[in-house]
Specification:
The chain is an alpha/beta fold. The chain has 16 helices and 14 strands. It is 44% helix and 17% strand. The radius of gyration is 20 Å and the shape is globular. Bound molecules: pyridoxal-5'-phosphate (PLP). Residues 95, 97, 124, 200, 240-247, 313-314, 358, 360-361, 385-386 line the site of pyridoxal-5'-phosphate. The site of pyridoxal-5'-phosphate has 19 residues, from helix 11 and helix 15.
Amino acid sequence: MGLNTQQTINIQPNQNGFYGDYGGQFLDENLKNEFQKITNAFLILKEDKKFNEELDLLYKHYVGRPSSLYYAQNLSTKYGAEIYLKREDLNHTGAHKINHALGEALLAKKLGKKKIIAETGAGQHGVATATAAALFGLDCDIYMGEIDIQKEKPNVDKMKILGANVICVKSGGRALKEAVDEAFKAYLREYNSAIYAIGSVVGPHPFPMIVEYFQSIIGREAKKQFLELTGSLPNSIVACVGGGSNAIGLFNAFLDDEFVKIYGVEPLGKGASIGENAASLTHGKDGIIHGFKCKLLQDRNGNVANAYSIASGLDYPGVGPKHCYLQKIGRVSYDTISDKDAVQAFFELSKMEGIIPALESSHAIAYALKLAQQNPEEKILVNLSGRGDKDIDFIINYEKNAI
Ligand SMILES: *Cc1c(COP(=O)(O)O)cnc(C)c1O
């Protein structure tokens, strides 16, 4: 097992919500009291046996956890190293997002809130939140850009079937960034009766801390399963990074195991120029967005740049503050994978193992395949954050000749 010689690596935010230089709470004064209330309630609940038992039962019987750890034999034979997949794609609603959506809804219930407000880009977080709201009998307002609503009809329909209100955002670029802006505005009006359920380990303190707590189940399970299956820890672990929730969920359990190499994979999109990618840690500079400080994609004038990735779930100009910290202290290596390589990995996993991955997760798969070729003696654990059903129509059009 891990030596735990460097306990300080896996830090929690300080009182002001900072992980080293990153994070914090850049908020409207009106919300500060409310955020303190949420922070206090969460810190008590996370130590509360009943709360955690309730969550564990939901994870087990509603989500289908523990998600399996699968040895990908065909890929391993072809690429050299042993490749293991943590199957978050098998969860109810098809990805890791249900882990924090249920936690946030349970928190809302305990705080006596009647409504959940959330933003969504591709609709994955919206569907997970609408699902949790339905289960707990909460009202649910999902803010979504007009362009995304047109692009993601099946997810919009699912949210409506689940009983959520989908609110069309028509300002600015009419996409994820504007959806967050509008959802925050609504929250400012309604915070007495509503809670904001954010979609990743981003936003003002305490959101990154809360989402991280609920996602950490991934790494706890994976570490135990890996030890049972192989008798050792992996040499390397890999996850894709949008805001960073599935990645931090996996990484946390291994941060103090100093011999485990950790890789976060960002989307390089079409290239390294501004507007062509969503690789905030690789190509961003320190800046503030949506109430927290992080590595942020910016143009030459310091304005927030447009983020782009073929995977809508990775398409955010900022990134979780703990990732910025882990990059700075050198514990996690962050690297990029292009649209093209992600699509290739999408088909490789589908054809070699019979598992169709989400385009987001395909970035992690692509990187793992590179690592495997360079390190044929290694055992590599990859987080398969979601399934690819949502991407089928898109990919068929994108790669007309590939099938
Ligand atoms: C939303 C999403 C992501 C990106 O979000 P993180 O917070 O970075 O995990 C990755 N994979 C899938 C399948 C998603 O739906």
